[in-house]
Amino acid sequence: MKNIIIAWRNLWRKPWRTIITGGSVFFGVLFTAFITSMQYGSYDAMIDNVVKFYTGYMQIFTEDYHENKTINNTFELTDSILEIVRKEPEITSYAPRLEYFALASSVDITKGSVIIGVDPKLENNITSLSKWVKKGDYLVAEDDGILVAKDLANYLKIDVGDSLVLYGQGFHGIMAAGLYRVKGILSFPSPELNKQFIYMDIKTCQAFFSADNRISSLVMMVQNHYHLPKAMKHLKKEIKSPYMIMSWDELQPELVSMIEADKAGGVFMKAILYMIITFGIFGTILMMIAERKREMGVMVAIGMQRAKLGVILFFETLFMGLLGALAGLLASIPITYYFYKNPLPLTGEAAKTFIDMGIEPYMYFSMHPQVFYIQALTVFIITIVIAIFPIYKAFTLDLTKALKA
Question: What pLDDT does residue 310 have?
Fold first, then answer.
């Protein structure tokens, strides 16, 4: 304990030396936390865009529908399934969907489209669908109108108030055909969604496909993807054959692969940053040892044991690392929080790239706890490893040279 007290008091004999060494740790934590927050924020944005535009965090459907997505493999939503979903505390909202393909025709122009029957209110809780209605009005319950994505509407040369013919194959091969009024035009950030989607009320959709009370999937949301594993673990035990449940990462393996590839690149970049931080901290420790060479020589000459001197130097370095890590952690939180609340807008080619990927053109940041404590802990561990060097110097100190320094 006495050695620890001496080490703490030594820090403040020359405050500038402590500030310089602790500053290296401080900026190391600050930079790595900021970069990691930006990296995780971009992943969160990618995931949120996928789940909030279309897939949801989880979906329940039949095993047959997973193998062959035809309307014949849809199912009736039973009270037992709803009871399981309602009892799961992690689930914040859910919505049924009936999804299938049909031909959309206007005058002499025809194009294959994805027809999605939704409950207007419940779907809006999942995907905020109403905010993408750029022209016209959103659906209401049992509405007989439809919402058409803008690129599809442009291709078919239709606008709000026009009529659109839909025809295809319904449940068990029944002919599906109907004439529907365009109630609104949707404009999604994703070009792929804009090219093919048509939304209608789920009751109207079931009548169109002659699939009364049937749905293709039940889409569910949790607060964010960090809450997903707990919900999935419970629901996988409860949902039995012939039904199954899949999470967004199982439904979107391409996005998972892209995130994992980017994480690998991020690990490489952070490794380089940690190397720079390591040499920065090590440089300040070398400076401290060189400056105090004569002082250490005098202390050994008057009888201080080298082991005790090494312990004092170790704790001095440890305290400077701890102070720098805590200061960096405390400083990084409000700075990152500001950018978390005020994402950086992107322009030019960067914005176009994000839009093409279906992501809003902003640089998002994350406030997940691991963004901060892992960086502070990593830099602190680096400091602890470097703190071994002063112990080595204490044992290898050349007393004659030190006293002449």
Answer: 80
With 0-12 CB in 10 A as exposed, 13-18 as middle and 19+ as buried, what is 240? exposed
Q: Which residues of 293-309 are buried (b: 16+ CB within 10 A; e: fewer)?
A: beebbebbeeeeebeeb
Burial tier of 108 (Cβ tally within 10 Å: 0-12, 13-18, 19+): exposed
- Let me know: does 55 contact 248? Beta carbons within 8 Å: yes
What integer is the mean pLDDT of 347-363? 71
SS3 for 183-245 is: EEEECCCCHHHHHHEEEEEHHHHHHHCCCCCEECEEEEEECCHHHHHHHHHHHHHHCCCCEEE
CA distance 392 to 177: 84
Instruction: Indicate yes or no: pTM above 0.85.
Output: no
What H or E segment, with its residue span, contains residue 106? strand 91-106
> Are the CB atoms for 138 and 129 separated by under 8 Å?
yes
Report the alpha-carbon distance of residue 92 to residue 81 in Å, rounded. 16
d(CA 284, CA 299): 22
**Residue 405 confidence (pLDDT) above 70:** no
| Side chain identity at residue 14, one-letter code | K
Residue 398 is predicted with a pLDDT of: 73
Q: For residue 346, what is the DSSP state?
A: P
Instruction: Determine the pLDDT at residue 355.
Output: 66
Tokens (6 digits) for 281: 């901290």
CA distance 199 to 164: 13
